[in-house]
Structure formats: structure tokens, C-alpha cells
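Retro notes
What went well: the complex prediction finally ran end to end.
Inputs used:
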Amino acid sequence: MTAPFAQPLLKSGHLLGIEGLSPDEVTALLDLADVYVSQNRAADKKTALLRGRTLINLFFEASTRTQSSFELAGKRLGADVMNMAVKTSSVSKGETLIDTATTLNAMRPDILVVRHQDAGAAELLSRKLSCSVINAGDGAHEHPTQALLDALTIRRRLGGFENRIIAICGDILHSRVARSNLRLLAMMGARVRLVAPRTLLPADADRFGVEVMTDMREGLKDADIVMMLRLQLERMGGAFIPSPREYFRFWGLDREKLSWAKPGALVMHPGPMNRGVEIASDIADDVEISLISEQVEMGVAARMAVLDALSRGIA
Amino acid sequence: MSSRRIAFRNVRLVDPASGLDVKGGLLVENGRIADIGPRLFNDAEPNDPEVIDARGLVLAPGLIDACVHTGEPGAEHRETLASASHAAAAGGVTTMIVMPATDPVIDEPSLVDFILRRAAATAKVRVLPMAALTRGRAGETMTEIGLLKEAGAVAFTDAGRTVANARVLRRAMAYAATFDALIAAHAEDPELTAGAAATESEFATRLGLPAGPAMAEALIVARDIALVELTGVRYHFAQISTRAALELVVAAKSRGLPITCGVAAHHLTLNELDVGAYYTFRKVSPPLRSEADRAAMAEGVASGAIDLIVSSHEPQGADTKRQPFAAAAAGTVGLETLLPVALTPYHDGRATLATMLATLTSSPAKLLGLPGGTLAKGAPADLVLFDDGEPFVVASEELHSRARNTAFEGRKFQGHARMTFVGGECVFKRS
């Protein structure tokens, strides 16, 4: 469908994070993703771009959403996709990550998609493997394809990023989604705000060219996009916040808080949601303002664009 | 709230908030201070139904006692909000800040609401609750600081317990800072002072009492100051008792950290030797210290290094006090003796009356964000009228509180409340 470029689109040959990408690379990836959105909406969704190539999904953390999105993206581009079930493999028998990498390398994959609970895992694999590595989330470090699909969603709705106010709210501290998003959105000229209780804000967050706030009224003022983050259950019981009801009272997105944002502001969430904790059900389900389903659709297209871009360097 | 007018004339007005210390008059109207000045009612008799000619007496803002334990809920046989408020009124205390160390612990918004409603229905003076910083005061998980603050908690404290786990405390501090909430801390390393009934010293050794080192206080103060530096939370050491802790607080303040400290009236006036022959009414927490530490506390309030003086009113009964010293409960009642005991450095010639009253009025008001603690026009007419020179001997049978466990039995002080007003209403008059 798209003609191969002469130059590899991703200079490094991997996609390990948003850090290190240039605004031009991001724009090119989003342009490419736009093409795949159209392809995915056609009756025939499949091309042969990656015919004969092998994509391995290696997920050390369970993720139905991201893993199936990569699987679908690979299959629609004609690749052979294999999902490594970590729980039943020797990895859970104590094999080190390096040993796993060596084993996988011997199978000669072209692209490895990896999610791991530790920051830097994707980086480590990229140095040990001879294929392209895509980081599908490493600890609290980065989740670049989520940031790309979020950017694609925003760009298609708002037309661009320049001077748009985007409030990222919730558990910033543990969030790789927040870290990738703030890097990408700030790089593209958006005004990014992080809004959270101080227990959920990482140290020196204000050094990233973003505004850091604790009050939702202040943080949502004039916002074009309100991006809610998932608060994991194990963090609600008193360690970082005292209770889900207190969290919802002060940081959960409901109609009242949303009214503090710009009229017509749109709501995003990377999923899976905790209804009644970080977001009220009636907002999550309101197709007029919620982009949550759209984000899932954009996810497949954005990942196809990344696979496409990387494949140009593989050949 | 009273709609009556009350005119005070020929009185010594002392308002630490404005630095005023002058003879003059004050007019109360609709529960608030309507007028004040050196010439007010000088020439003509005010034509008000109620005129209080108070020649020779001091009129000051009602006292705000920032550390009061009652037995409500859970130990009403020792003290209720109502019975404590009688003692408060008799001591010139117009606002009691009550501690959450009750049964159940005040760690839920509905319990803050309970205290406020019970107080409104039964107490003669204003009552404002602090809520627990951690659930059950167990030092493990933070409370709902945002919801508790909305419900009316003026600060957060584990009242008499130190949060041992620095990780828990750090997060509670960061979370409290999100709401600009104030934390009031008890500073004693719980392991170093486990089972201790006294301060380690020659005296405790002679008595054979289980004792903890005085530095257990400075150790926690130093840790907490470092965590304040990390989190930026407003932090108040509820009652310090040692020179080492005070020096750390003074240094932290000079670095601009949002740190304050208080001292209990008994730590200003009693030292470890006052325990005498295992006198359990003088068992307090933290325990009485050396004379050098006591003197440092008196110096600290006179210099302004210590922000507040509190009674740390803690009612106990015969069941808890008539025990061997180590087994007896800690605590002394103190609401009624707070004013005269706190005035000791003034009578010793170490500080002005206004300086000493600041620690009981304007300082706690500022720390807790309360509208009272001042004689400014428009402020609530919470007032205490007292004779600063009147001598008296503390006698437990004359106390108004239900519990009578005073550490000051038989001690002589000066400065007894004559009349106390809350919102312009006379709640106490000494006959």
C-alpha cells in the first residue's frame, strides 16, 4: 500500500522510547499511521509489507490490550506473529533476561516486541539481539507506542499540538504512559500539565518542560485534553493515597471537574479503567467527549506505522 | 452567640497579635469585638446595660489550648467534651483543640463530624478536633486527610505516638502537603523509649525506674526535619521537652522550613526530681526532664523560639494512676492551670506578659488558621479577664474537670482567670 522509503524512518533501528526521537520522526510516524487508519477501516485490511518477517511478542507483564494490538498490527502487515507465553516458559524458571534474549536471537526474529516490569529491559535486549526491538512498556520508564497512539488521536481531533493544553492526571509516579506522553507532547509544542497528589508525582517532574500541579481545578483550567491515568489497586490502600473514595473526591474525573476544563474538552484514558476511582462511568461512556475507544483503534494503526518504519531498516 | 453589648472599662488590654498593652476599654457587640481603644469609655460612663469596670485586671484574647485530650468518645467516665469545657472555661481557655487519641480513634470524616456536633451540643467553649495522621494511630497507612480536613479537622496527629516508619511518614507528609494540611507530631523514638517511665538519669537510676534517653526526642526531631525538607509539609512538634530538640527546631526555622514547636506547661515548671517518691500524677509523656532541659524550655518560650504552650490536658482516673509508677498511665490535667503556669516566665522577669500570652493566643491561632486569638475589631469576642498578680494554690478538689489528676497539686502560681467569654457570652465567673 505504501511504497518503501529509501531511508529507514527510525534511525536507531529500534523504538525504545520517545526520548531520542525527533519531532520530524514523530510527524512521519503519525503521517504513516494516518494511512493505516484508513487501511484498517477498509474491508481488506491486509498488506504484504512484512511478508516472511517474524514478529515475537514477549510480554513479561500480562496485557491483553497492548499484546493483541501488536499481534493484529503485525498480522495486518503480513508478518508471522508469535506470542511468547512467559508464564509457561523457562523465564519463569529462573532464566535471566540475557539468556532469554540469546535463545530468542537464535530463532532469528525480525522484530521483538517486549514488555517488562523493569525499566531498561528493552534497552538491554536491543544490545543483545540482532533484530529490531520495540519497547511495549518497561517499568515506569517508557511506553512509546502508547504515546504515539495518543498523539495520533489528539492530532486527528485537534489538528495539531501547538499551544494545546493537555492535562495528564493521576498516578504519574508509576506511569510509563505519562513519561512517554509528556516527552512526546512537550516536544511537539503542546502545553503539558501533570496533575496529581504529591505522593504520586515523581521527583523533579517540573524539569521536563511541563507544569506540575496538585489541584484539579487549577490543572484542568482551559485544558483541551484531559488524560486520566490508571491508579493500580495496590496503591489505593493507604500507601500512596488513603482510599479510593478520597482519590475520586479530589482527582477522579466527574462532570463537575470536567466543567473546569475548556468547553468541549476531550477525555482520554490508556485503559484499563477503574470506574469510580479515576474516572466516572458516565464520562468514560459518553461518546461525545470520551476518546477511549478511539485510542484503541488508533493503537493498531500507530503500531502498524512503527512496524512499517522499522521494516525499512531491516531489509 | 449573644446579641448583648458588654462594655469593659479601665482594663489593661493585652493583645499579643498587635503588640497592644495599654489601659483602655473594649466593647462587645453581637458576639464580636466592636470597638477597642485606650480612650474608649474614659470620659463618660458607657450607657450599656452591662458595664464591667475591671480596674487592675488584664483583658486578653481567650486562650487556645492546642493539645487537649478528653475521654469522649470511649472514656467518658474520665472526661467528656462537656466536663473538659468546664475546666477550660475556668482556666480562660476559649478554644480546645482536641486530640484524636480516643476510642474509636478520630480517623474518619464521620467521627470529626461527631466531635463537632457533640461539642456544639454540650461544650461551653469552642472545640476543634485534630484527626489522626494514620489509621487507628497505628503508624501504617495514612488517613483521608483531604476528606477529614473538609469535615473540619484543623491538623493531623497521631497524638502521643511517633510514626516509626519513615517511609509511611514521608508519604503522609507529601500527601498532607498536597492539601496544605498541618501535621502535629510527637517526637520520641518508640524503640528507644519502649517501656520507659522516666528520663534516663541518676535520679531514674536511684528510683530504679525503666527509663529512656532524652536524646530519643532529638533523634526523631532531626529525622522529621529532614523529611519536612523533602516534602515541604507544614510541621509542628506538639510538645518538645529537651534543649537538643529545641536547638534543631531553631536551626530548621532559620533555614526557612515551615516548622513550629510547642511545649507543655508542666515541662516549663517541673523537672524529673518532682516525681519525688514515685508520684504518678507527675508521670507524663514525654517524661519530665533534667533541670537543664526545663530551664531551656522556659528560655525558649521567653525568646520566642518555642511557638506555643499547651496544657496537654490528659484526664486519668484512680484506676490508671493508683498504680506503681511504671505501670501507671501518663498524663496530667491542665486546662485550668494553663494560664498561671504559662505566666511563670513572666513572673520570673524573663518575658513580657504579651510575649507569654502570644504563646496561648495569637501563635496557636496563626498556626491553625483560626479567627480568634486577637482583640482586633471584628474578631470573635473570646476573652479572658484575669488578675495577673493574684496568687493561688492549686487544689485538685477545686478543679472543674471530671478528672483531678493534676501534676501541680499544692503548687503556688499567680494569675487566675476571673471571667471567661466565648462569642461574647460569659461562660465562667469566679465567685
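What we learned: Chain A has a mean pLDDT of 92.
What to try next: split runs per interface for comparison.
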